[in-house]
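Q: Here's a chain of 159 amino acids. Please give me its 3D structure as tokens.
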Amino acid sequence: KYDYPLHLGVTEAGPVWSGTIKSAIGIGTLLAEGIGDTLRVSLTANPVEEVRTGFEILKALNLTKSGIRLVSCPTCGRTSVNLIEIVDEVETKIRDIPKNLTVAVMGCEVNGPGEARSADLGIAFGKGVALLFKHGQVVARLKPEEAVARLLAEIESAE
């Protein structure tokens, strides 16, 4: 440790996709080791993307308690909903909510309930049904088309 703040950054990391990966590895590795006090992500992109990337690095390392951590599955043959579209919608709508929550959006009845149960709030889709979890308990059995709106309402009312 030093008597002055140590600033971390990857200079000229590049465009959003590859620059985010370089920044996450470079900055994230040092932060995970307890090195660094401030950070700057430099991307060839809108500066808003730089801030979002830096914030996501902090969230991934549990170095900030502000902002929702979104967990979702990569989809598989068991997925019966358009999970990619659903996750994109949820991510967009929760992006600026400063609550300290973990939210899971899972696509099947095999692994989905376990992941959704582990989150503060979660939905696990199945064939023709979506289970809504709150702190490990099933609180509603919903039609898939109702699940996102209900999840977002639960997020808004969460303390």
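Q: Can you summarize the key feature?
A: The two ends are 36 Å apart (CA to CA).
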